[in-house]
Design a protein that fits this description.
mainly alpha; about 0% strand
Length: about 80
């Protein structure tokens, strides 16, 4: 079980690091800065594709609008709770 825990810890750390690098990539201003960040991302995940990742993010943002409305309705209490 120790090996599995080590593997999971690596995966969680990699996921957290990728998130930080993707945020940095969004804020990057110069092409040299972008290239350096993309190189780091590619070192962590060689199959990562910027165009696909950005297209997916835009799709999730568009789909997120109705989701916010549903969560507001559920948080108000009301008829969705069972007694």
């Amino acid at each position: 079980m120790v090996e599995r825990r080590i593997e999971l810890d690596r995966r969680y750390h990699r996921k957290k690091k990728m998130g930080k690098l993707k945020e940095k990539l969004q804020r990057a201003k110069s092409t040299s800065e972008r290239d350096a960040i993309v190189a780091k991302i590619m070192k962590i995940s060689p199959w990562w594709n910027e165009a696909v990742a950005m297209a997916g993010k835009q799709g999730r943002q568009a789909a997120g609008a109705p989701k916010a409305k549903a969560s507001a309705r559920a948080s108000s209490g009301g008829s969705s709770r069972r007694k």
